[in-house]
Please model this.
Amino acid sequence: MPPRTQPDRLIIFDTTLRDGEQSPGAAMTKDEKIRIARQLERLGVDVIEAGFAAASPGDAEAIRAIAGTITQSTVCSLARASERDVRAAGEAIRPAASGRIHTFIATSPIHMEKKLRMQPDQVVEAAVKAVKMALEYTDDVEFSAEDAVRSELDFLCRVFDAVIQAGAKTLNVPDTVGYSVPAQWGERMRQLIERVPNSDKVVWSTHCHNDLGMAVANSLAAVMNGARQVECTINGLGERAGNASLEEIVMAVKTRRDVFGCDSRIDTTQIVPSSRLVSQITGYPVQPNKAIVGANAFSHESGIHQDGVLKHRETYEIMRAEDVGWSHNKLTLGKLSGRNAFRTRLQELGIVLDSEEALNAAFARFKELADKKREIFDEDLQALVSVDANLDACDRFKLVSLKVCSETGETPHAHVVLSDGGNEIRADEFGGGPVDASFRAIEKMVGSGATLLLYSVNNITTGTDAQGEVTVRLNREGRIVNGQGADTDIVIASAKAYLNALNKLYGAEERAHPQV
Model:
């Protein structure tokens, strides 16, 4: 039986800011995390896992800032079952109107033996101690049995029984390595709820990874068998192949309530804006055929499908595009628009700039864009603060000018001028194309020795004058960073993205992996 409290309510636990940030190169600044947290609150997420407080001082500071900003969602910090971690998490969530500590320990034989080097009795003792310590800071404590998919059922029941007695309110059953299949995972959830004493006094949760492409299916199987919290991320972002996709979970239970018997409090019209914001900030583009939020999600190419949709939408569409936040590119502003109109439209889009200086800088970028592009759409405004805002005033490298020559039968050539800490440097280089030549010229000046792992281009809106949004991923000695740039000129956008990545490489060190 599902929990007796709110059996029709599915709690959405978003871990984009924690597990999602573990994607290579997706580390976010404090300000970027706050922007995403505000959008998650606007989306209606129940619990925002803001980070791993013990991972680094920067992560703890970001959690505290989010806890002091968010009022409508619970703000959570992850913590291993250790005093250091739990106390760091407790201090980080102190400012929250509603705070949660999410503590975990591995329970599978392979993890206990090889990683923890602990006996089962020691694991149970550590779990109980962590839960009791977390209760010193909040009465909302969640416990996770890491690698539950490969844990012995009897031992899981023992651990969960112990932490319920210790005071845990939510029990999370994670498929940490993405190993399960839906029928097996649903059955495991059903058996745990049946066998664990007082299982009806807690909320059962699931957290599934996508290594075999079944994270959403496994999560939904758990819901069908009594889970009433799903841990997920925007766009399915996360470690390795990612996590269960929030948008797919939410729309599945909403569209098929006849099957799942529950629904969430998510404002589904905020799904697409949330997807775009996370994509722009992390540099992880959304594939066109991605369910719900992909560019082709509501497109119909087949003549038979087109004819059916034109006659009656529901012949081929099970959801309305408008219900998840898709809309026609709304023309909002032009080159004659004033500063107040600009500010107002940003507020309508849920974009909050922290100072007048930030607003002035964004408005200046808007005016510059309006001189190049006749029509400015909502997506362009999002890019102004999500992509161009990555070009921080404190950055070491800045693009001063770029000139490229590319013609049939000739080797492309680039002349690039940079500012390096205020000093102008310049270089010329040839390359396989104008972008390659530009990158070679930049490397000639900087000499980073980084390896280019990814170069991705997406159009922000339609039309030949659309801004190009470029993502560059660099690797230097095992450190991976993403850089982003946007411009109506794709070569300039590429140079901006490359420099943005270089500034991250030469800037503050990336935080430690939370579970190392």
